[in-house]
Amino acid sequence: MTDEPAPRRSDATRAAILDAARRRFAEDGFRKATIRAIAADAGIDPSMVMRYYGNKDGLFLAAVDIHLDLPDLGAAAPDALGDLLIRRFLELWERPPSNEILLTVLRSAVTDETFTQRAQQLFAEQVAPAVLRIGDPADAPRRAGLIATQILGLALCRYILRLPPVVALTQEQVIAEIAPAIQRYLTSEPPKL
User: Fold this and answer.
1) Does residue 14 form part of some domain?
2) Is 65 exposed, middle or buried (0-12, 13-18, 19+ CB in 10 A)?
3) Contacts of 46 (CB under 8 A, 6+ apart)
4) What rounded mean pLDDT belongs to the chain?
5) Of 49, 104, 178, 181, which is least packed with CB atoms within 10 Å of its CB?
6) DSSP codes joined into one string, 123-177
7) CATH number at residue 108
8) Residue 67 in contact with residue 125, Cβ under 8 Å?
9) pLDDT (tens digit, 9 = 90+) per residue, 15-51?
10) How far is CA 18 from the centre of its chain?
């Protein structure tokens, strides 16, 4: 016999709502997704969505809450940094629920200024601090920004636009192609112009 309390029904309802919201936001985007459709997907009354999350904005923010759990670059072998980061991002982009969350954040950020701030917050709170662990801290924002261009460009082409040559690449091929660029961004000095 365990001393753990049984999960409450409200926890299961919240989880069902978030799962349905992540799928619906990923498929339809923020503007097209409706509370009614999300509730139908979750098998509940729309009033329950409102009860737990208040409105569509509140539900969206809960649905896109993600912790990237990036590797500690300061503790990694210096020549393996690019490989570590691209492997982690591929893991995030290709496994549920993080793949749905990231897809939703990217789609929403490029179509709605309100949600651009969420993407910027994710970058500022989770990506930039990982890069601060190596190299010159004053140069970390430049390096983190360049890494974001590479990762987001890959995500756009592979998961949203689904460009056939990019989709056809195996994970190991993506790693072999992209890791050196990320490694260079992580360890490069600013160009002297």
Assistant:
1) yes
2) exposed
3) 35, 36, 39
4) 90
5) 181
6) IIIIIHHHHHTSS-GGGHHHHHHHHHHHHHHHHIIIIIS--HHHHTS-HHHHHHH
7) 1.10.357
8) no
9) 999 999 998 988 888 888 999 999 999 999 999 999 9
10) 15
